[in-house]
Design brief:
Blueprint (H helix, E strand, L loop, with lengths): L1 H30 L1 H18 L1 H4 L31 H36 L1 H15 L3 H12 L3 H28 L2 H8 L4 H9 L4 H24 L11 H8 L8 H28 L5
Helix pairs in contact: 1-12, 2-4, 2-12, 4-5, 4-7, 4-10, 4-12, 5-7, 6-7, 7-10, 10-11, 10-12, 11-12
Length: about 300
């Protein structure tokens, strides 16, 4: 009974320590003004994407040729394009597409990269194979690999996510491997091995949780870079096909009118810059809290 009480007391102390550590990190995050600015900016963009049908009464695809090239006004805050479509409407719907693709890519690369990185760190015979493949893929510029993959997969939204996930998974795998190698050498892991624990238990119960901070930070940056690469692919005609209002399509259609109808490129560009900047600043804040030694 005394032993059981002692073990229960130790578990309670450990749980209290975990909660206290989380509170400290949360306080540290909320005191970081830049991190809070990034969070607010990102939340505003997410809300705009979710509430797009309520923010604007216009259809993002329907054409109204009588309203072609209208300058910004109370009726059309961002003006209209060559087909009479409201630019504000197309921009907020474009944000929605960008966020969905960015989040999906970050989630897939997080899971796939984490698994590959952990396996590479734990099994020496897999390390060379996985890392050489990852290094080979990382040596190819992201935009070129994205174009090549899209030419094979076809221009659909789901294929954009697949292509971007293939492009960025090696990056996460490398970060996960580096973090896992450090944890693998710790004394408690060796103790668990000596007790006869299986490799899956060691990897996913004891090593993986201690590599999460580095991988989460990397996934945040991939969220932002995936948005940029998707826009670049769509701008080049290799991403989401028109007339779907992705940010790349909006800018691609506007480029020929950049001097005569300045609003076609100005407002969508500003919104996209703010979106990516907000996510990047938020990622920096998360990094500062979860991995202070990275500064």
């Amino acid at each position: 009974m005394i032993v059981m009480s002692s073990e229960k007391g130790n578990m309670d102390i450990a749980k209290d320590a975990i909660w206290e550590n989380r509170k400290i990190k949360l306080r540290s995050f909320t005191k970081n003004k830049m991190a809070m600015f990034g969070l607010v900016l990102t939340v505003i963009m997410v809300l705009a994407a979710i509430l797009a049908p309520l923010l604007t009464p216009y259809d993002p695809i329907a054409m109204e040729t009588t309203n072609r090239f209208q300058a910004p006004s109370m009726a059309h805050l961002f003006g209209t394009d060559e087909f009479g479509r409201d630019i504000l409407t197309r921009t907020v719907y474009g944000i929605r597409i960008s966020l969905i693709i960015g989040a999906a890519t970050a989630a897939i690369t997080f899971v796939a990269g984490m698994i590959l990185g952990l396996l590479a760190a734990y099994f020496t015979f897999l390390d060379n194979l996985i890392m050489r493949i990852c290094e080979g893929m990382m040596s190819i510029p992201s935009i070129l690999m994205g174009i090549a993959l899209m030419s094979v997969l076809g221009t659909e939204s789901k294929n954009v996510v697949i292509a971007l996930s293939i492009v960025y998974t090696p990056v996460v795998a490398r970060v996960a491997r580096a973090a896992a190698l450090t944890v693998k050498e710790m004394t408690y892991v060796e103790a668990i091995k000596s007790q006869g624990a299986g490799w899956m238990r060691i990897l996913f119960k004891h090593i993986a949780p201690n590599t999460l901070s580095s991988v989460i930070v990397q996934a945040t940056y991939i969220f932002a870079t995936a948005i940029i690469l998707e826009a670049a692919l769509s701008f080049l005609g290799a991403g989401i096909p028109a007339p779907t209002p992705s940010m790349g399509n909006i800018l691609n259609e506007a480029k020929q009118y950049i001097f005569n109808s300045w609003w076609l490129t100005l407002f969508p560009s500003i919104v996209m810059i703010l979106l990516v900047m907000g996510i990047n600043i938020l990622g920096d804040g998360i990094r500062d809290v979860m991995d202070p030694t990275a500064n």
